[in-house]
Specification:
With about 260 residues, the protein is an alpha/beta fold. The protein has 12 helices and 8 strands. The structure holds uracil.
């Protein structure tokens, strides 16, 4: 605040906002329109010592995240993240589904099994990477939802965005992979399609971001072309992380 006053006194009329600040402001504006008290930003995280401490704090905050509760469209159970707090690779999906809510862990259903296969092909395990979601609650579909799932809408995404942004700040991975368009929309603030975002590096909080198709897309589309597209995104990620890549790995899902 002092910094802002000083800037104002010295005649500045513009302030640069990072993605998290924009997410928080969006949440505040939406909350104000609905007459809901705004969620205080997750600032104490910066003064904490270890990454584990920061994540434990964020997990606790997420469990009582008022901006999400206030919407009334997200279910109660909070599903935080899994994996290694010191991971160099962070993978970010959209929201927990039926299985994830039940087990309170991201990517443990069919899409999770596909993700495990992708990681296995990269020579990695779930325990070596950090896996999270842009939305920490399963989006509700009413009383008769059963096992059905849906993607979070813009409001739900904005409400949860400060949490994933704070996780990124805590982990400081060498790179991030957005799994699907909803994740990319949250982290990159763009509504562009995965097809348009793939094949290049983007940035979130100064950290390189690769966008690829959601693993559930590969469950619906088993073509070699779709598999190769995801695999090329993973090869680029492996190169960025300087992971060893064998000639066999380079050739996965290429036409014979
Ligand atoms: N899909 C996601 O995006 N995240 C999960 O945790 C599970 C399925």
């Amino acid at each position: 605040m002092q910094g802002l006053s000083h800037m104002q006194e010295s005649g500045s009329i513009r302030v640069a906002l990072d993605e998290e600040a924009r997410g928080i402001l969006r949440g505040w504006m939406q909350a104000k329109q609905k007459g809901v008290p705004p969620e205080p930003p997750a600032t104490p995280v910066q003064s904490m010592q270890s990454t584990e401490e920061k994540l434990a704090y964020l997990r606790e905050r997420a469990a009582h995240w008022k901006a999400a509760r206030a919407l009334g469209t997200l279910r109660e159970t909070m599903v935080f993240a899994t994996g290694n707090p010191h991971a160099r690779l962070m993978l970010v999906g959209e929201a927990p589904g039926y299985e994830e809510e039940l087990r309170q862990e991201p990517f443990v259903g069919k899409a999770g099994q596909k993700l495990n296969q992708i990681l296995g092909a990269m020579g990695l395990t779930r325990e070596e990477v950090y896996i999270s979601n842009v939305c920490k609650f399963r989006p509700s579909m009413g009383a008769n939802q059963g096992t059905a799932n849906r993607a979070p809408n813009e409001e739900e995404l904005s409400a949860c965005l400060p949490l994933i942004m704070a996780e990124i700040r805590a982990i400081q991975p060498a790179c991030i992979v957005c799994l699907g368009g909803t994740s990319a929309k949250g982290l990159l603030g763009t509504a562009a399609t995965v097809s348009n975002l793939r094949g290049q590096w983007h940035e979130c909080q100064g950290i390189p971001v690769r966008v690829t198709y959601h693993p559930s897309y590969l469950l619906r589309n088993e073509s070699m072309r779709a598999k190769r597209a995801v695999w090329e995104d993973m090869l680029a990620t492996m190169e960025h992380l300087q992971l060893p890549i064998t000639p066999k790995q380079r050739g996965y899902f290429l036409p014979a």
